[in-house]
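cron nightly-structures :: item 1 of 1
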Amino acid sequence: MKQTNFASKLEKLATPTLVASLSGIQRGIEREALRIQPSGKIAKTPHPEGVGHPLTHSAITTDFSESLLEFITPVSTSAEQTLSQLRDLQKHTLAHMGNEMLWPMSMPCFIENQEDIVLAQFGNSNIGKMKTLYREGLKNRYGSMMQAIAGVHFNTSFPESFWLSLKESEQDDSELQDFISNKYLGLIRNFKRELWLISYLFGASPALCSSFLQGKQSNLPFEKQGKGTLFLPHGTALRLGDLGYTNSEQSSLKVMYNSLSEYVAGLQSAIRSRSDLYEGIADFHSAEPKQLNKNILQIENEFYSPIRPKRNALKHETPTQALSRGGIEYIEIRALDVNPFVDTGISIEQIRFLDVFLTYCLLKDAPQMSWKEQQESDKNLQHVISTGRDTSTVLQRGEEQITIAQWGNEIFSELVSIAQLFDSAHGSKLYSETVNKLANWIACPDETFSGQLVSRLRETGGDSSEQALSMAQEYKEAHLRGDYQYYSEASLNKQAVQSFEDEKAVLAGDTLSFNAFLQDYFDKA
């Protein structure tokens, strides 16, 4: 059999040093989860005080709404350890939540009124008030419902030994950090081209409660079931579609990924450009502000992208300022729905697959990506979101039309060789077993997360919320019954107490009025 270009390239690059370095890949997870009442309705209580202050706790905070918890694991080279940390953080939080539970889905539970979604509160320090006002802006720009959607963010970076080996194999004579940044940008371009596969495999939001629409009409071909469940028979991830965490106002933003300077310039232009759409919303210059400012993006974090280049920022640095200073340090994947089939919202198999897929995206050729091609990849994603499990669905790849089955099989044929490298690095067969298992899902759409959820929905004939509530109760009981695996109750209680002390120090350190603080922030952005 003729060797593919990718296989030939991989053979040259896969030195013993590079293969060994794969065991040093670092990961961190940010898992969001909505707090709910036993009835299945959104919780209206404040952030559980016993877990700490949401502004200063490094591992347990809130995302956009007060009820949307966010659990953040520290960086680790062990996927198993990361999941243990995540489980412990959830166990600790559930113990302080009374009879409330964690909603195990991405799309929210029954929400009677948007006013039931309380904005996240971070205290009276300038930075705390800024965070809440930013969320007020999101509410007034896009509506509150979007702030109740949960996802999982997967952060990853390759060790220096990997980069040194790869740089030597490619005989690249650029500065190491420039090499790293350019390679990460290539990974991003390839990820965007084939992001549809992540939605196909791991999309877990094919259904939603009709309350999410708040009476608005949708052009999507929903079927209705039970009291108010709407679902797409062949859909995958409504969270990533036009109903979910997207921003139509941003569709005109030409943020490109062909060079770091190009990416930074695109984002910085958006945070400095006035938006006609938001001009009528009062900003921080007003007595009663309803958003931070009137620009297309209030701050850079408002840019909704399924993947981001990142660098840990210094105090008072914006994300793009950090990237301009030091280059790309790691990648943040934001395209994952909450996995409802595991209590952590992400499984060990997903982590192994992402290790393989992201390494594949990094090592394969990554041509420059035009704006037209970015739009094409977005259209492919939208097709998969709405009809991904329909075997007749066709995607656009350059000048050709191609079925999901054909394109998916081509990708998996190349993922196999990457999985074997990971197996060599870890002394196991787990990566190959994972890739082989998921490869079968290309021919069997019902095996995907969304396929399993729709099958269960059809079998029961009821509402999707019934499944979710049952899972929520099961996971809570398992968490509270189980032992801590990485942290201890004492250490987590200590972190909680310390976070309140840290918040007091932040408040005491404020020297400017809130308006002056914001003016200074935007002057330096």
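cron nightly-structures :: done
The first helix runs from residue 5 to 13.
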